[in-house]
Design a protein that fits this description.
GO terms for molecular function: carnosine N-methyltransferase activity. It comes from Chiloscyllium punctatum. By secondary structure, the chain is of the alpha/beta class. The protein has a domain of about 250 residues: Rossmann fold (3-Layer(aba) Sandwich). Strand 3, helix 8 and strand 4 form a beta-alpha-beta unit. Helix 1 runs antiparallel to helix 2 and helix 6 runs parallel beside helix 9. The longest helix is centred in the N-terminal third of the chain and has 39 residues. The termini are far apart. The site of S-adenosylmethionine has 22 residues, from strand 4 and helix 11. S-adenosylmethionine binds next to strand 4 and helix 11.
């Protein structure tokens, strides 16, 4: 069996190991309407700290990583706990517990999918059966369609089982016990609607990232970013492997993978375990092209022109995910972008796609990107501003217009070199649906200047 693909292809082996560095206690898939879950019963300061730290895992190909938090994490923990009477004890034990709890909550959600999806179909079936017999007779295709929906659910469930199979070994320095998909089905805890929504969104993410059906969407979103990378770091003028490119909020990893495919050293970063389980699967477990099938649209009961549209399959991966050139430096970190990336002047390029609106405070993201970019490095961004925490009670959410963000970017010292204010694109679009969302995205390339000008003899802000 092929072992892991995510990543840093330091060795010529076709395997990648994933090592837990920090902790995982919560998640934000970052998909529209999805956010960090707050454990309100806990000490607020600890929860804040834990949430920032989250996972901190690195998936990489072929070698081991240090099982220690990134620099500065422990220092920060210490500072956060000093004088905190609520958490005098061993906070790491608590984190460990929360992280495991979170891991099993996501596994539970994957396992619960089958029950959840069938219940939804049962609802439709019952509604249909409540119709007068004469009306039912007018709709001879309805019940056969329901039967097919149930078959699709069973199939999706098999894929979900395959995805979480071995996830307990995803982190090479961390074991979570045995995942037995069939065991204790009776004792399975109902997953929340929130978690089921996240799972359904993640299933649709396969379409965007790893199917032929997602090509138009990838061309709209990823291609402009890739073209700028190639323009700024032309392979005939530099050694792409020397260029370090970071993709925060990498989703299922396709953009990062495409960048790595061109020979650049690329690291994706992702927070959500839903995404990480699935990207681990597609990058490490899938072999061949279009060998897997999912039915991503079966959960959509409205806006179907034809019943067949609801049950149409999507095949993945549309490329052989193991086809990266040997010695490609491709890695992936799991955890909070702001928490993991603290090292100044490290990256030649940071590429964000549908990401900056996942921030509680987008200025924090800008500050982090400014800090971690090398002098002369570029930030490429494409996406809308659908602020993920906007409607979340008790969640900080600073919703800035692009105008304000732009002003902020310039204040930090970035020079905007390319800017397009209207790039139409979709996100996990069902192209047969009668309802479609079109984002009118902004796209820009902003450079951290090679030499920072001093202001009245003082260094520039945040230099
Ligand atoms: C809207 S999705 C975009 C995914 C991908 N870039 C794409 O274009 O398909 C945003 C992603 O950012 C991730 N995310 C949100 N906050 C994050 C954080 N603080 N650190 C790392 N990833 C984060 C989410 O889990 C989600 O996968």
């Amino acid at each position: 069996m092929i072992n892991r693909v995510y990543f840093q292809n330091h060795s010529s082996r076709n395997s990648v190991n994933l090592r837990l560095i920090g902790r995982c206690v919560g998640t934000s898939s970052g998909l529209p309407g999805v956010a960090v879950r707050r454990e309100s019963a806990r000490c607020d300061r600890c929860v804040r700290s834990l949430r920032r730290r989250l996972l901190g895992a690195v998936v990489r190909r072929g070698d081991s990583l240090v099982a220690a938090p990134p620099n500065g994490e422990r220092r920060q923990d210490k500072m956060e706990n000093e004088g905190n009477p609520h958490c005098p004890g061993d906070k790491h034990e608590e984190e460990e517990r929360l992280e495991k709890e979170h891991f099993w909550k996501i596994i539970n959600a994957f396992r619960y999918y089958r029950i959840y999806a069938h219940e939804r179909v049962t609802r439709s079936e019952k509604q249909f059966q409540s119709l007068p017999a004469a009306h039912q007779k007018l709709l001879p295709n309805f019940l056969p369609h329901v039967k097919r929906l149930r078959q699709c659910i069973e199939h999706n469930y098999e894929i979900l089982k395959a995805i979480i199979n071995n996830c307990n070994h995803m982190f090479e320095n961390k074991e979570y016990g045995v995942i037995d998909m069939e065991a204790d089905l009776g004792q399975l805890k109902p997953a929340s609607t929130f978690d089921m929504d996240k799972l359904k969104s993640t299933i649709k993410q396969f379409v965007r990232d790893w199917s032929d059906d997602g090509k138009a969407e990838r061309d709209a979103c990823y291609r402009p970013i890739i073209e700028e990378i190639v323009k700024h770091f032309p392979p005939d003028e530099c050694n792409p492997a020397d260029m370090n490119i970071l993709v925060p909020g990498a989703g299922l990893g396709r953009l990062a993978w495409e960048i790595a495919r061109l020979g650049y050293s690329c690291q994706g970063n992702e927070w959500s375990l839903y995404m990480l389980f699935c990207s681990h699967f597609v990058l490490n477990r899938c072999t061949g092209v279009n060998t897997m099938t999912l039915y991503p649209w079966i959960h959509q009961f409205s806006n179907n022109k034809r019943s067949a549209d609801q049950i149409r399959p999507v095949h993945f991966p549309d490329v052989n995910s193991h086809s990266l050139p040997s010695h490609t430096n491709f890695s992936m970190t799991a955890g909070d972008f702001q928490e993991i990336y603290t090292e100044p002047n490290t990256w030649d390029c940071v590429a964000t796609c549908f990401f900056i609106d996942t921030a509680h405070n987008v200025v924090d993201y800008i500050e982090t990107i400014w800090k971690i970019l090398k002098h002369g490095g570029i930030w490429i961004n494409l996406g809308p501003l659908l602020y993920h925490f906007e409607n979340m009670a008790n969640e900080k959410s600073i919703e800035l217009s692009y105008e304000d963000i732009r002003h902020c970017i310039l204040q930090f010292g970035f020079k905007i070199e390319v800017e397009k204010n209207s790039v139409p694109s979709t996100y996990t679009e069902n192209d047969q649906s009668m309802l479609k969302y079109l984002y009118d995205c902004v796209f820009f390339v902003a450079r951290k200047p090679l030499h920072l000008p001093s202001l009245n003899g003082f260094p520039p802000v945040n230099s």
